[in-house]
Each structure stands twice: as C-alpha cells, then as structure tokens.
Write a structure and sequence with these properties.
This protein is of the alpha+beta class and 153 residues long. It contains 3 helices and 9 strands; from the N terminus they run ααβββββββββα. It is elongated.
C-alpha cells in the first residue's frame, strides 16, 4: 500500500513537471528585442541613435535613398558617417538634442552609385563619436507601397 502511495505521488509530480516544465527551457518571445517596422534600429552606433533605417530604391534597383530617423540626445553636435556597401560615406551633422527624420520632415538622403535589388539587404556602416563603425544589414524596399512611393528616387 505504501508503494502505491509513493508511486502515485511520483507519477503526479512527473505529470505536473511534464505539463508545465516547458516554460523553464523555452525562451519567451516577448523578451526579444526587434524592430517592429519595415526598417531596422541600429544598436551600439555611438551617441547618435539610428532608428527605422531603410533604403528606398527605384524599380530596377539602380538608385537609392536613405530613409531613417537620427536622434542625438547628447549635449553637443555629432557627426554621423553612413557608409553603404563600400560607396563614398554620407556625413550628417546632428545638432545636440535634435532629431532629423530623413523621409519625414526632411527629404530622403540620396546615395550616389547605389545598386541593389528591392527585397534584399545591404551592409551599412554607421559611425559617430569615438565609437568604431558598426555594420548593420539594412533592408532595400521600393516605392510599390503607397506610403513609400514619394521616397523612391
């Protein structure tokens, strides 16, 4: 009789752990950081934050515009260098405490010599302050969607 009691307690414990134990080893999706938009946020990019970065291209991918929001929360102006796949770097001065929205309240930033197929990604290096250039894969979109049509070159 004692062995049946021990067996039933052991079986109950096994069922309990088996039914609820998966939360101990499975990562929770709500704790993962991701960009919830078409563009990407650039992390570890120095004093200037780059948010929702993307490149809008024409239909054949032979010209592109850089679209993003640049935020400088610091007390001094910062120069951000943006190098797209080995092309000449774009340099943008971001005043202290200011935000620049390329494609929002400012025209998109044209990228001379750009060539990439819409739907692909390109490596872009961002550098500001004393930080090293940080590579990020940036999506390439076209003007098919109505809200991107006026941002295409």
């Amino acid at each position: 009789m004692k062995s049946r009691l021990v067996a039933s307690v052991a079986l109950s414990a096994l069922v309990l752990v088996g039914a609820t134990g998966c939360t101990f080893i499975t990562p929770q999706s709500t704790t993962l950081v991701y960009s919830a938009s078409d563009g990407v946020n650039v992390h570890d990019d120095g004093p200037v934050d780059v948010r929702n970065a993307m490149i809008i291209t024409n239909e054949d991918g032979t010209a592109g515009n850089f679209v993003a929001v640049l935020v400088n929360n610091g007390d001094s102006a910062e120069l951000l260098s943006i190098e797209v796949d080995g092309l000449a770097p774009l340099r943008v001065n971001v005043p202290a405490g200011e935000r620049i929205s390329f494609g929002g309240n400012t025209d998109p930033l044209p990228i001379d010599g750009f060539s990439a197929v819409p739907g692909s990604t390109v490596t872009v290096y961002f550098q500001s302050g004393a930080e090293s250039a940080f590579p990020t894969e940036i999506p390439v979109l076209d003007g098919t969607l109505e809200y991107y049509s006026d941002l295409a070159p």
